[in-house]
Predict the structure.
Amino acid sequence: MSGADEGGGGGLVLTAIPEERSAIERALTEAQLPAHVIATGDGGVRAARVAREAIAAIRPSAVIGAGVAGGLSPDLSPSDVVVSVRVRDAAEDAPPPDADLVRRALSLSGVRGATLFSVVRPALSVSQKRALLGQLEPPRTQAATQGATGTVGCVDMESASWARACASAGVPYVILRAISDTADEDLPGYLAACMDAEGSIRRSAVARGAVFHPGAIPALLRMRRRVAECGRALGEAVAGLVIALPSR
């Protein structure tokens, strides 16, 4: 749980991977804003466990989840930032995000309301993304009451786990996501074979796999560049939201 002092209270920012954490820490430092920033690891199982541990240790006044996501709606572009109007997985809706935090996020420049669909395995192909988009119901009344007209859909692997960890601890939360791959972009298919038992993508396996799938290298380099661009966009959005968080 790097980046946090135990028992400090205040705001807690959850990311999945170190690149996201570093970008957000840098933005908060530049803005001179205090917050604990934790990388839970990717994948729902590890994200849930580390989120629960961090919330118990820090006892935050509110939690902001932040990370990259795949676009499901065709009108989402790389580095677009969205906020969780609704969070769900294949089974059901997760506990809803805090309405006031959602409204504050929607007041930030360029941030759009979204349904975040958490999956166990990454959505790597255009056809998989289309199938997931087809599973999303139209935005519920909740979205309209939060001012999130035109809600879009995106896919990730941690949001539902973070949401349930926050709800079980009685802590308000909201999740920001930046789009790293669009609805019409395929990712290397062999990434599905690079997952560990907890659903995280093993970077060593990705690197080894590139040797046997050289055609995937341009896409991997694009992903790396996009994550950096998304980190900058997320850092700005998180800083804009942290400044409004209650302290305790």
In short: Residues 72 and 130 are 7 Å apart (CA to CA). The mean pLDDT is 87. The chain has one domain: 11-185+230-242.
